[in-house]
Amino acid sequence: MKFILSLFIILSSYISLAQNKTIVAGEKLTYSASYNMSGLLNELAQVTMETSEVNTSKSTLLKLKCTATTYSKWDNFFKIRDLYESYVSPKTLTPYLYNRDINEGGYEKFMKYTFSHRTKTVSSVMRKKRADGTTWEVKKEVKIGASTRDLVTTLYHLRNLDIHKANIGDSQNFTVLFDNKETIVRIKLLSKETLNTALGSKECYKLAISLNNSSILKGNNDNVIWITADDNKIPVFAKFKIAVGSGELKIKSATGLKY
Amino acid sequence: MKKLFLILGFTASILALILAVTPLFKIAFIPAIIALVFGVLTLILSKDKKQHKKPIQLVLLMTIIALVLTTYKTIYTTSEVGNTEQMEQKEEQLEEESIEELEGIEMDDIEMDDIDTH
User: Fold this and answer.
1) A145 phi and psi, to 5 degrees?
2) What is the residue range of B56's domain?
């Protein structure tokens, strides 16, 4: 009896872990991305993270959207118009469809993943623009693991984790499908810090992000993200180390939050 | 020594001027200050001789132009997002396509688990 009871408790806690408790439709987070060299901050682009409700004839889905747009002073030099979106279940944040449409200084690429969780496969469509203006398309079927998500869903999933239950130094791995390849992203809880942000002084969890077997985002705690330690768990600040100087992502505004 | 300082000052002032006209103008402060230091150093070293005056004046002039331009831009440039009309149109079109595609997808609300490594 005791065994069944403990099993039930473990199972129920497990299920509650997978439920979406933080993200609602109508949320909008705006960030400013900048390049920092010896304290001289150069603003590069505006990054937004938005959620909205999408209705199909059978169900209601949550659309998670991330965009990156360079400021007008950069548009003549290197224009970026990136769009990443994911259609997920509002209850569990399970991804069904992912679109990535990027335009970076004339380089255009489109990527679409259609998830089939029952067969654990993703059918991907990649469209690239050639130099002469014509496009070419590649279709592929990719096998994925049970916990593989796309990039946008992983970002939002981070906010749904029970970080308050974790200890300093704990880490967790996430599998992200990017460019038709499964990549393991490791998130480590470094400490708790209070940061002054555009939203006021916030107590935050400091998380380190690293990629396995990759030269970018190496695992030496150089790439850090600060997430508020309240119920909303919104990312307020991120810092990425680059060859000379560092890249920064600072929050400017947040609206439509659940709590 | 004077020649070396002059060349360094000259290079730094040109770099400052180039950076000052790009959107990375704030970084121009670094070479501008370096150029100013080398310019003044060369000026002190060649105080009594007249031969180096013209190039030093040029270095200082370029540095001052770069500094004025950078300071002006730092104060008056605001970061605004440019034209996003094209992206918005693309987004609308993508949403329509996606909804169409989602109609045909089997939606099994599977709960996903993560790999724990403590």
Assistant:
1) -85, 175
2) 2-76
